[in-house]
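Lab meeting, action items carried over

1. Structure of the two-component assembly. Owner: GW. Status: complete.
Input record:
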Amino acid sequence: MHAEIIAVGSELLTPDRSDTNSLFLTARLNALGIEVTRKSIVGDNLAAIQDTFRAALERVELVVASGGLGPTEDDLTRDAVAELLGLRLVRNEEIIRAIQARFQSFGRTMAENNVRQAMVPEGATILANPRGTAPGLWIESKQRIVVLLPGPPRELKSMFEAEVEPLLARRAPELRLYHRDLRVAGLPESDLDQRIAPIYKTYSDVETTLLASPGEIEVHFRIWSADSAEANRRLDELERHIALSLGEYIVSTSGESMEQVVGRLLTEHRATIATAESCTAGLVAERLTRVAGSSAYFLGGVVCYSNEMKTAFAGVPAKMIETHGAVSAEVARALAEGIRRRTGAALGIGVTGVAGPGGGTPAKPVGTVHIALSAKGNTVARGLMFPGDRERVRWQASQSALDMVRRHFLGASESRGGAVRAGIGAATKRRSSKV
Amino acid sequence: MHAEIIAVGSELLTPDRSDTNSLFLTARLNALGIEVTRKSIVGDNLAAIQDTFRAALERVELVVASGGLGPTEDDLTRDAVAELLGLRLVRNEEIIRAIQARFQSFGRTMAENNVRQAMVPEGATILANPRGTAPGLWIESKQRIVVLLPGPPRELKSMFEAEVEPLLARRAPELRLYHRDLRVAGLPESDLDQRIAPIYKTYSDVETTLLASPGEIEVHFRIWSADSAEANRRLDELERHIALSLGEYIVSTSGESMEQVVGRLLTEHRATIATAESCTAGLVAERLTRVAGSSAYFLGGVVCYSNEMKTAFAGVPAKMIETHGAVSAEVARALAEGIRRRTGAALGIGVTGVAGPGGGTPAKPVGTVHIALSAKGNTVARGLMFPGDRERVRWQASQSALDMVRRHFLGASESRGGAVRAGIGAATKRRSSKV
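Predicted assembly:
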């Protein structure tokens, strides 16, 4: 079964807004075995809307549209589709009552223009909208299904799940989409692909997509199948092979984010953690605490941008900064050890680097970052070089710091740490400016 | 002049990827006086691509497309358009040489399939691609212009600016789009609109859009005009009226972000700043340091999640936490004053709150945040209540903290602070759990 998605709204033809509903709709339609073959975005113009629906209905059995169901003169989807399909619009008293009740619950009376929203093409099924006034419509005509949904994402999502999916599930074919999503950290995209392509290429029934973002790559495996057991068996088998090939580079296979994985490992090991950050300036602490309940393991952190603060907050000897420079393996170690000592945490993270755009030197160019992880009796440090602008360098540094914590618990050897793109030689005697 | 945008690529019909090129293209086309009337997204399928181009060319004079120009079998845009327009594809030796040179610069030899990229419809203008191998194409046929651009955003953007804009500028009509973008903080969208709607509605020639995100609203004014001086006069006048109505709620009129505005004010006043954060956990520090050169005014900060750390890092008396609770105006003040004292900064920020989802109490529900700003001889604190989930509460708290710094320099009265959605009564004696 094939579908097209149409988004209606002149605001979607400006530089400010994009249609995000179609990503949600595509995921849900795919899961029901329905492939999306085209997406169109059209303004609030009766002829253009009709023209778009007409062309789509010539091509596919199912058209899912969002937007243009509101109460104003600009909301034309209902009128356009009814006219196109030759259906009379009938005033629906039940919808009127529902809208009136909604207004009353806010202590207001229904504005007259809301009556537009109660005009229903004859024979259409009304889709309830508990989160807004505009009901959705399910229209069957000439072997075709047209689903009209409201534009606001929260209204559209809840309506699709509650009202449309059950109706579609009955029509949808046996073929469904099954998927596995892996997160991988520490490998550049080309290296990752080189490792796993020989594996996934032997699974010609599985569609593989690599989605790279700084410091992390998502690997999506998708399979269309009429046989749920067989599809899951194939995906499990592929996932096992990939896991053997990637080992500790795999962050999660369950959708867990890096922060969530680190939080889970800290919780499982009843360990606490504290941070001392220079170039990442709070980003590692902020990411650690994105997870609800992180107060159980995150004790606190310091952001020490200036050399003085590195000494005052984390006890880094001023002499050490002078000798090795603020951006050095030594200072990263001292930050990690200092914050661990001061907070009494089981683990301490220290990060120092040159995020740019200024502050780089030939010996320590922009992108140079030293990260250390201190545990009882052992501190490991890594020198890294990240490409990109200030934001990207900081993000990748925070990702590598969290990944060091993750690998610490896996017992993986730090020396195999894959995030190292270019090793950095021993810290020089040159003093690099602070970030 | 009207244009349609077509994005080609099967990956754009999955739940993972959306077409972002069209937002950039729309902004640039609008600036040239060209209105975008439809956007289509189609997969790597010859018939579907041709069908989409055919329909678009029946409607508008200009079609701008992205994607499908690569070297693989899946890249069909060139073939589809040439066939549709009845143009022969001719091998272009200059492109071959350019691709070979590009491969050589990486120390590689050109793969044979790259020859596809050198096939050019007869009569087409070649658009150079310094950032990739796929050249773009400008094709004029039957009173229509077709522009084919590569899919990767950085290749598309630089090619559009360098090659397409000069060609379009010669054809484009006199009518151009002029705009002003304001950022506003501290007012809910409905309150903001109530204030400014009476003003912008008298400017019927100006299109006004409000784009709300947590803690900030962008107000965009756009005007289509053939008279640049008149358009700018109208926009300047409207902006002045809006500025009078909104006063200190306006963060910037030049596109500057909150972080940039705060950074500029700190620099102008030669002031330094430090942070002591509980619920925002480093977010305020991280945002302050997003600005390049922020080391000139940001001294450092502490993230004190636990009560012990509030005492150890910022000198908050343990007794005070016990009496008033960690989430209280008193503790926010003590954090701000403590960090200012410890770092010697001119300004200290203290933030404490309940970000959720746990930790709320009837007296201090999730969303309760106290923020203090300490300056020499004066500390002000505000109690705020933010809606939304953990991420949203933290973000809005960081936004309000930065806004307090901004207003401090404007000399605006803190008591008029508009971000207050609901005042919070005096701190109770109940101890609320830490965030």
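2. GW to write a short summary for the group page. Key points so far: Chain B has 13 helices and 17 strands. The two ends of chain B are 56 Å apart (CA to CA).
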